[in-house]
Description:
By secondary structure, the protein is α+β, with helices and mostly antiparallel strands. It has 8 helices and 9 strands. A 7-stranded mixed beta sheet has the order 1-9-3-4-2-7-8, covered by helices on one side. Helix 4 (129-137) packs parallel to helix 5.
Amino acid sequence: MIKPLLASLLLVASCNRAAPQPSGASPTHATADHTPTANAPAAPAAPVDLRGGTEPAPSPPAGLAVATFAGGCFWCMEAAFEQIPGVRDAVSGYTGGAELHPGYEQVSNHGTGHAEAIRVLYEPGRVTYEQLLHTFWRRIEPTATDRAFSDVGHQYRSAIFVHSPEQRAAAERSKREVEASGVFREPIVTAIEDAPVFWVAEDYHQNFYRTHPDRYNAYHEHSGRREFLRAHWGESAPY
């Protein structure tokens, strides 16, 4: 059963509206007991462990490849990619920030550097990375900085997190193609970054479009996706 606080959050017409930070949820760095000299650079701060209950994604099963995308609400991105033949699973989670074990409340409350993202496990013999990129560009708002449709915040930025030089080359090539297409008048701001640790989101976020269809549809239909995507990709574009 979803806890009362989480249930109330899922009822609002937003993928992840900011929630009050629970008392004591974010430990702080200890204060150093000395001041660095002018000639000695300060040591880099260790990543903060938010103790949000999430764990890193495991290695993919044999025979499957991994792609990681951020494009706003992970509920909607997960639903879009799981419809592709050859995609075995799309997992919701958090990535792109330095904090360890981030939880939903910290990310949605703008308390981390993480983005909502999906980890796509796919069969490379049935679907190519380039085909996944094709879907990605047609499901995001690539001209928006720290926003995705109706959702606002750094956690909703769009990004392609690449796992190999080959993925980076394909992602950069696809970005140039979208830029040259003339579909968008504004600059494309979608980032292409090396894939860091992917923290698997809480169970109640996984397959949300299937487990909570009424709540998902209420958000999805009022998120602004349909209007934006069909204005740019055609009246029959999926959203």
